[in-house]
Amino acid sequence: MDRRTFINLAAGAAGMLLMPALAVRAYAAEQIAKLVRSNAEWKKLLTPQQYDVLREEGTERPFTSPLNDEHRTGMFVCVACGLELFPSAYKFDSGTGWPSFYDVLPGHVETKKDFALILPRTEYHCARCGGHHGHVFNDGPRPTGLRYCNNGVALKFIQGKV
Q1: Quick one: which of 36, 87, 133, 148 has the fewest CB in 10 Å?
Q2: Distance of alpha carbon 67 from alpha carbon 156, whole angstroms
Q3: pLDDT band at residue 19, thresholds of 50, 70 and 90?
Q4: Could you say which of 78, 81, 126, 149 is catalytic?
C-alpha cells in the first residue's frame, strides 16, 4: 500500500469515528419562562407516581420504566410541562435501571445540592415547571463524562422530534 492510500484510509476511518458526534445537533441555551401551579393543580394533572417524583422529589423503582428500552429517534420531554430535555442521541444504557443521558439541552434543567443521603449529590429539575427529574453524576460516557439519571415517570418520549 502506498502512502497516499494509507492516508486516505486513515482519514476515512477517523471520519467514521467522528460521525456519531457530528450527528448530534448543536443547541443554544435559551431563556425558559417559568410555569407556576399550586400543589392542588399538580395533583389534578399528574398521576400519583408522577406527583411523588416531580413534586415531592421521590424516586421510582429501578428497571420499571418502559423508557429504559426506548431506542427510537426522538425527544424526551418533561411529562408535567412538555419542555424538551434530552434528544434521543444523548441517551445511553447505564445499567442503573433508570433512563440515562450524557447531556441535556442547555438551560433546560436547573440544579441544586441534595443532602438526603448524607453525602451531597447534584439534583436536577425542569427549568420550566421545577419538577424533580433525578440526579447528575460524573460517571457517564464521553463526550461530557456526565450521567443524567432520570426517573422515567417524569419523562414522555416524542418519536421523530429532534
Answers
A1: 36
A2: 8
A3: very low
A4: 149
Sequence-distant (6+) residues with CB within 8 A of 126 are 54, 78, 80, 81, 83, 85, 108, 109, 110, 133
- d(CA 35, CA 37) in angstroms, rounded, equals 7
Predicted pLDDT at 86 = 98
Q: Taking the domains of the chain in order of start, what are their residue ranges?
A: 28-159
More confident: 67 or 6: 67
Contacts of 88 (CB under 8 A, 6+ apart): 70, 71, 72, 73, 74, 75, 76, 157, 162
State the Cα–Cα distance between residues 162 and 90, nearest whole angstrom: 11
Known active-site residue 78: no
CA 112 from chain centre, in angstroms, equals: 16
And the C-alpha cell for 150? 432520570
The class (CATH top level) of 28-159 is mainly beta
User: pTM of this prediction?
Assistant: 0.79
Task: Give the span between the Cα atoms of 90 and 55, in whole angstroms.
Answer: 25
